[in-house]
Structure formats: structure tokens, C-alpha cells
Here is the input.
Amino acid sequence: MPHPATVLVVIPLENARQRVLDGVTPLAPREVACQESAGLVVARDVVATENVPPFANTAVDGYAVHAADVAAAPCTLRVIGTLAAGDGTEWTVGKGEALRIMTGAVMPAGADAVVMVEDTEPHDSGSVQVKKGVPAGFAVRPVADDVRAGDVVFSAGTVLSAAGAGVLSSINARRVMAYPRARVALLSTGDELVTDGSPLRKGQIRESNLTMLEILISRAGCDVSNLGVVADDEARLEHVLIDAARNNDAIVTSGGVSMGDFDVVKAVLSRIADMQWMQMSIKPAKPFAFGLLKIDERQVPVFGLPGNPVSSMISFELLARPALRKMMGHTQHLVRPTVRAIADAPLRRKPDGKVHFMRVFAQFGTDGRVHVRDTGPQGSHQLAATAAANALAMLPDGSGCDAGDTVEVMLLD
Ligand code: AMP
Ligand code: MG
Here is the structure.
């Protein structure tokens, strides 16, 4: 039987990404506490059942007055009392009167404006001199001018920010129907990989992908279970994968998806999951595997990333992250944004029929445009230059670009 990868044609990135996106579906929405909702996508319209603010109140520390009384300021008003925020005492301010009032306190009946304390001079006699007039409504926050009961505050599909979680609190929506974080199991294969800090024997290298991918997956908004390095042993790997599928919404593997003789990931996944072994016309990150592992009536997506650290990172960004976002209910910005940038120095590559994703550092120039420069050696094993990058310059087939040329750049975190 031919090796699965040998029978597959090389496809463009967009084609591979579409296959992956088509293969995943959003997770079932569930109720989430508002404190845990930031970053999540709302699954059902959230309708406010309360007004915010619940009553008209003062925006400043000062004196509640009749605007008409202070129209001819300076003038002196009789102070009838003091009202703090949270104090529910009913007051009525009559003609010629003022109520000392603190930010957030209820607007008393009668008053229609607030004079800032900075524009007043209190007298011992229990009166206050108002030095500056204010129009009606000045420094008054009307009831419901933030949120009105009955308003849809978040429609389905909205991504909640920290402020969004705060809004939920403000309307007493303690729980919200949202798409949950995907639970993602992460594992690496490779008998050469050392994770425990022990001295390297000949042929061994330090493991780096798990550390990096755990962070990337969690920054994508998922909950990660890092299962560590699994030995290149088919029985062991099969057991770990099936267990991971049972307990997670998705699996990310690193290594063993290209053409090597000991690519046990390929051997095992080919047997237990419905896999697509892809080769893309990009560099780095040519091989990528995607499939579904059926377990307990669920189809668990498996993302097989290549082992070379830079390839691993880039294929996570280009294919796995968009799919994980789709699973978490996102419909916008599945793929990171791209901008047109100026190359400050030549970005060189060789023609090979592929799109190259060159690691670059992007920053705004004084001209208000984004400028990029490459961050060093671009081999797929050379993670150090990737560490210095915050963007990927997308260089179409050819020999690259010259200083001053415009280049499309994908912005990373
Ligand atoms: P593979 O995809 O398994 O053929 O691995 C390709 C290259 O990436 C090899 O040089 C591996 O040693 C290296 N590699 C694989 N997995 C890791 C990892 N988790 N950390 C660092 N390097 C890795
Ligand atoms: Mg390997």
C-alpha cells in the first residue's frame, strides 16, 4: 500500500484550510458565569431585564439645584441636606434650595441639574454660594441612558470583552448562554525529545513544541490538557489518543505527519480516525493532517501538526487556530488579520512554487504605515528567529521583494 502522503497532491493553503473548517462544527452552547464569559461568543441574544442606571443620578460631587435658580449666578442657595451614593432617602429640592450630593447619588425630586462642588463656596450659615450657572440636565445621568430594560445588549455571535462581562453584571445577567472554551488535548511524539532537563544523549534534542503550543492553544481561548511526549510506539499512542478523544473536544498532535519511516502518528491515526493527510504549497509547514476520531457518538477533530518547531507554530496559526475558533462559535476573524506593509529591507526567497511565510517584525513607522524587517534565519527548525517575530510576511512564489516594496503581512499576537 502506498504511503498515504505519497498519493496526495499538493494543495493551496486556502483549500486545506477550507477542508479543515468544513470538518469542524461549533460546540454546544452552555450557561457560563459572567465572570468567565470574557473572550467567549454569545450563543443567544441577551435581553436586559433591568435599566442601567436604575435611577437618575448625579455624575459629579456637587449640589442638586433648579437650573433656573442659578441662571443668574453668582447666587446663594439654602442647603437642605447631604445625600451620598447608595442613600435611598427621598428629598425634594424647592425653589432657592440646594442638596449636597455625591457622585452616583439619586437625583432628588425638584432638582434638574447639578452644580459641581468646584463651582461653589459653602457658607457656615448652611447656605452655599453658586459661582457659575448650569443648564437644565447638567451633570445628571438619566435613568437607563446606558442600558434600557428590553434592549438586546448582546446579539448572538458577539464576542464578549472584559467590559462585556461587566455589562452582564450591571444588568444582573449572572449567567449567559455562550459557546464554551474547547477542551484541547495536546501531545507530541518523537523518541528524540527530552522534556525532563536531563543531559542530552547523542541524537536527542530538547522538546519545545509542547511549551509553545500549550500557550498558543490557550491564547486561542481553549482549555489545554498537555499530555506530554508520547513515545513512538503505536499501541501506546493509540491508547493515549483514544483517551484524549474521550475527554476533550479536539486533539492537537505535534510531529510524525510527514514522510518519515517512524511517523507513528500517521500509522495510528490512519487506523483509528478518518484522516486527510495534506501537503500544502507553503513554506514552512508543508504537511498537515486533519481528521475526525469517532468516539462515544462524537466526532473529535484531530489536528496533526508537523514536528519542526516553526512549521508547528505556523500550521497551528494558519489551520488549527481558525478551526478551534469556529468550534468556539466565532464567525468573524477566524484567520488572523493581514495588512499591507512596507519592507524596510529586501525580503529574499527562492522560487519554488510555494507561498513563503517569512517571520518578520512589524511596527508602525512615523509615516503611519506598518513597516517590516525579517527577524533572522528562516529554517523550519530555527525557532529563535520566530521568537523575535510578531508577524508573517506572505511572499508569493518568486524571489521575494525589495526594500520599499509593499508586502502582505499577517499580524500575530
Ligand atoms: P517529525 O515531524 O516528527 O518528522 O519531526 C520533524 C523535526 O522536528 C525533527 O527534527 C524533530 O526532531 C523535530 N521535532 C519534532 N517534535 C518536536 C518537538 N516537540 N520539539 C522540538 N522539536 C521537535
Ligand atoms: Mg518524529
About this structure: The radius of gyration is 31 Å. The chain has a mean pLDDT of 96. Residues 61 and 102 are 4 Å apart (CA to CA). The longest strand covers residues 355-364.
